[in-house]
Amino acid sequence: MIEPENFRILVRGIDITQYNALKVFEKELIRAWENRGIKVDIVNAGADLNYVVNNHYDIGFSMNGIVFSERDYILNKYFNVPFYSYYVDHPLWMDMRIRRTNRQHCIVVDEDFKGYVDKHYRLDYKAETVMQAGVEGLHSRRPFKERKYPVVFLGSYRNCSDIMERINGERKSFATFLKHMIALGIHDPFLTIEDLYNQTLEYFKFPLEDDEEYTEFLSACGDVESYLRGYYRERAIKLLLEAGIPVEVYGEGWEQLDCNRKELLHCHAPLDYREMLDVFADAKIVINVMPWAKAGFHDRIACGMLNGALVVSDETRYMREEHLHEDKLILYSLQEIQEMPQKVAYYLEHLDEAAGIAQKGYQWARENHTWKNRAEQFLRIFQRYQDEDSKATIR
Length: 395
What we know:
The protein folds into 2 domains: 154 residues, Rossmann fold, CATH 3.40.50; 163 residues, Glycogen Phosphorylase B (Rossmann fold), CATH 3.40.50. Helices cover 45% and strands 14% of the residues. The model has no long low-confidence stretch (mean pLDDT 91). It is built from 16 helices and 12 strands.
């Protein structure tokens, strides 16, 4: 077993990012490890590396595959120990980072992402799946009926017209390819991005010679994921407004939304991640639209639950398999998204029922979806590979 007092982790620290989400995830993990007695050293970009040179580290760790600059000699030194990268985005956005070294342990947030990595990257280790988690804020126990906002959505507006204009600027054959993927995703939103890609490759009889060419070409199709995410975000908000339900939106660009009943749309500037927790704690209902991940769980869901709100989210296989529906949160199908506002309206009219589900969601998330839970899960993964390496050495 890992002995915390003798275990040391070198973390490639996150620099400032939009909303600081990854920075918060990293801090929560480090705090949980340090509370277990584990020594954690953090190195950020441009830091003086001298203080770590003479230390022994059992593992290296980073969020989203951010590593030390390849120009830094420290990279080679510390890739001699197991290096774990936790990717919270689809691998198509991370192709070069995953491909940087085959010695990394690739940890993803969706079972489909795991299958994709295992199939298309020649890594020395199989990928692992660790779901995202949430953070409980200072006001999570605010009484449900006293909460200020009926419905809250956090996330920036992605203007599909702008994305399509960018797609139309591509060479004609590639634009046609991307549009075909988008049409498939709108027709059947249960398809993964790889399903859309594979079906389009087959439709156009487009040959790809090897895995590297396959992943490199898919990484150029990021506008498809952006369009579909934006399409369903926009659809969800428009349907709520048309149903007469006011919505508080926090994120960039929502002022541009062309919609009916715009007087019900209350736009707010983007928030730092910690500030977001206070908004969730003052919301009765939090709306979630998943990124194009069909077998995972999002930190927005966990944060909504951990801060006492009733979460209404599109479904994934994971959420169905965990039997969350109608018990701990409310799920809807993207294929039947027009029914979502009816569910929201029902729970706004039945606040006692909504509060009961929110309370069960809070308890479940507190037991299963905190970063302390994830820190322990990571330690079990580290231990398993440490044991496997020891057995290999003995042989």
